[in-house]
Specification:
Structural class: alpha+beta
Largest sheet: 3 strands, antiparallel
Shape: elongated
Helix content: 40-55%
């Protein structure tokens, strides 16, 4: 018996289908992008703590990409309903509920695994 989760596609109906159609049509309208600056002092400090420990022990480094990717995976674990994408199924609007996150975290190295554990620990140590 397999416990492996599988992707699922649901055809949208009612207001969800109308919303998807309007969003799809809005792609032809010019858009603007905005950027926001956010404080990252704690992220920087925690990364320094983790990298310092890794340097003294097993070697390797953790990048901001590792930490942000880990945060995304953790957030999607807590709210899997956000791990979806819009698709057309036989010409009809549908939502594909993805069983996995495509970051390649199944092959996570021991260095990054240790760093993730240390990052969790450091978030408790640094106010």
């Amino acid at each position: 018996m397999s416990t492996e989760a599988e992707d699922d596609i649901r055809v949208l109906k009612g207001i969800a289908r109308a919303t998807a159609r309007n969003m799809d049509e809005s792609l032809s309208v010019p858009t603007a992008t905005s950027q926001r600056q956010i404080a990252a002092k704690i992220l920087i400090e925690n990364r320094a703590v983790v990298n310092s420990h890794l340097q003294r022990t097993v070697g390797g480094k953790v990048s901001f990409t590792h930490l942000i990717g880990y945060a995304i995976v953790e957030a999607l674990s807590e709210m899997p309903q956000l791990n979806v994408r819009y698709v057309l199924q036989d010409g009809k609007a549908a939502v594909e509920e993805l069983a996995h996150v495509g970051f390649g975290w199944r092959s996570i190295s021991s260095t990054v695994a240790n760093a993730v554990w240390l990052f969790r620990l450091s978030t408790m140590l640094i106010p």
